[in-house]
Automatic annotation (TrEMBL):
Upper classification of the organism: Eukaryota, Viridiplantae, Streptophyta, Embryophyta, Tracheophyta
InterPro entries assigned to the protein according to its UniProt record, in alphabetical order: CRA_dom, CTLH/CRA, CTLH_C, LisH, Ubq-SigPath_Reg
Membrane spanning stretches: none
Protein name listed in UniProt: CTLH domain-containing protein
Lineage: superkingdom: Eukaryota
Length: 239
């Protein structure tokens, strides 16, 4: 966080390109004051958004940082996400409605994608007749009202035209990534309904760090961070 703040300040100065030693860089970083409370809130935001309820509860006790939502709701949200990831879409829909019926009532795109996932699971399990009936009764009417829904429906039903779906053009719909995509969309909708950010702040800060370094490359030679997992500063004199 200090690295991001310092980089942005340097960019805003618009100074000519120069060499900054590692020692000077670390001294300047140490001059950037970041409150521990802000760092703790950043960690809690990540734990809550990503659904690490046990870690969030432990961090709350150890740091005294209160989450901005009831931690018990994380368990419910993760149960919905897990149900979608396991292909139990009907169960997921029931759980969402138990949490807040307005989530699906006010989000037709999310509801369509959940119903689309139900259709995909029927096709995955070889229930062809049931899949066709479900597509006709539940998804076709929605497709008539929305062109993008219709295109997604046609693409999904196309799975039935291939005996070997592993090599068909729409085979990706049966990949785990499709379940994860739908689960992520549901997770984001639940977070939004709880007035919480749908994405954690930490990844955004890392993206800002990369952007700031790329901008500063044009103005200075300085200790960069190449490996974000270690945050190790490179010595510019060694390059």
């Amino acid at each position: 966080m200090a690295q991001v703040t310092f980089l942005v300040k340097l960019i805003m100065r618009g100074s000519s390109k120069k060499v900054i030693t590692k020692e000077d860089w670390e001294k300047r970083l140490n001059d950037v004051k970041i409150r521990k409370e802000d760092m703790n809130k950043l960690v809690m935001n990540f734990l809550v958004t990503e659904g690490f309820v046990d870690a969030a509860e432990k961090f709350r006790k150890e740091s005294g940082t209160e989450p901005d939502i009831d931690l018990s709701t994380i368990t419910d949200r993760m149960a919905v996400k897990k149900a979608v990831q396991c292909g139990n879409v009907e169960d997921a829909i029931e759980k969402v409605n138990d949490l807040n019926p307005e989530i699906l009532d006010t989000n037709p795109q999310l509801f369509f994608h959940l119903q689309q996932q139900r259709l995909i699971e029927l096709i995955r399990n070889g229930k062809v007749e049931e899949a066709l009936e479900f597509a006709q009764e539940e998804l076709a009417p929605r497709g008539e009202e929305n062109q993008s829904f219709l295109e997604e429906l046609e693409r999904t039903v196309a799975l039935l035209a291939f005996e070997d779906v592993s090599n068909c053009p729409v085979g990706d719909l049966l990949d785990m990534s499709q379940r994860l995509k739908t689960a992520s969309e549901v997770n984001a909708a639940i977070l939004t309904s709880q007035s919480h950010e749908k994405d954690p702040k930490l990844p955004s800060l890392l993206k800002m760090l990369v952007w700031a370094q790329n901008q500063l490359d044009e103005k200075a030679i300085y200790p960069r961070i190449k490996d974000l997992s270690t945050a190790k500063l490179e010595d510019p004199s060694a390059s």
